[in-house]
Amino acid sequence: MATTALAPKLRKRLVWLAIFLASAAPALYLGWQLWLAWNFRSSDLGKDPVKGIEHATGETAIRFLALTLAVTPVRQLTGWNWLAPYRRMLGLFMFFYASAHLAVFYALDLEMNLGEVATEIVKRPYLVVGFVAWLLLVPLALTSTKGMIRRLGGKRWNRLHKATYAVAALGMLHYFWSQKKDITDPLLFSLVFVALFAWRGVRAWQRRAAAVRPLRERAA
């Protein structure tokens, strides 16, 4: 009996560990590549390692945003309810990579020169869009704990976390705007987010239709 009860817990911990390690892997790889570029002037980050890691952290944040938003549709389509607890981890890793993207830009690209910020914003207004998206992520990350969910209440917490969709829209605008030539990757990510938004819209319509149907039947 004890072994039988232990098996699901062990499986859950192993899945948690696997997802955590897979989520942390890009950070470890990018850190290693930055170390190689710094010490040996050679890495997979390209001729400009700072721009390389800046782009990589931003794109990784978008990937994790897509994964976070995909958890619910996948769970609804497949019945894999075991995925639900890992949505928070994916969301926090998304915030981590978005914060790393911002930190690399300020610390390595601008070399912490506040005077350069205004100049860069004038030259590249898409920076404001990206920063607003990051600001929206901050309260989502801070309220991701079970304690905050209880404190806010389910309805208020859900309303707040719907801002994730605004983050996705702003993030894609920032991504498109920042690309000078090749927009293949932003376009592909946009299609993914459009599909996720469409699924959410269909589910909302189905819920409303289901709620209205009994009222119509009683009226008839």
Q: What's the SSE blueprint?
A:
Elements: H1 2-40, H2 49-78, H3 87-109, H4 114-123, H5 126-142, H6 146-152, H7 154-161, H8 163-178, H9 184-219
Helix pairs in contact: 1-2, 1-3, 2-3, 2-8, 2-9, 3-5, 5-8, 6-7, 8-9
**C-alpha Rg (nearest Å):** 21 Å
> How far is it from the N-terminal to the C-terminal residue, by CA?
54 Å
- The H-and-E topology, N to C, reads as HHHHHHHHH
Q: Catalogue the unreliable spans.
A: none
Number of strands: 0
| Range of helix content | over 70%
Shape: globular
Strand content: under 5%
Please tell me the overall pLDDT.
88
Structural class: mainly alpha
What is the number of helices?
9
Reported for the largest beta sheet, the result is:
none
Commentary on this structure:
The protein has helices at residues 2-40, 49-78, 87-109, 114-123, 126-142, 146-152, 154-161, 163-178, 184-219. The protein is mainly α and 220 residues long. The longest helix has 39 residues, at 2-40. The protein is globular. The mean pLDDT is 88.
Summed up:
The chain has 220 residues and is mainly alpha-helical. It has nine helices and no strands.
Task: Please give a handful of descriptors for the protein shown.
220 residues, mainly alpha, 9 helices, metal-binding, transport, heme, membrane, transmembrane helix
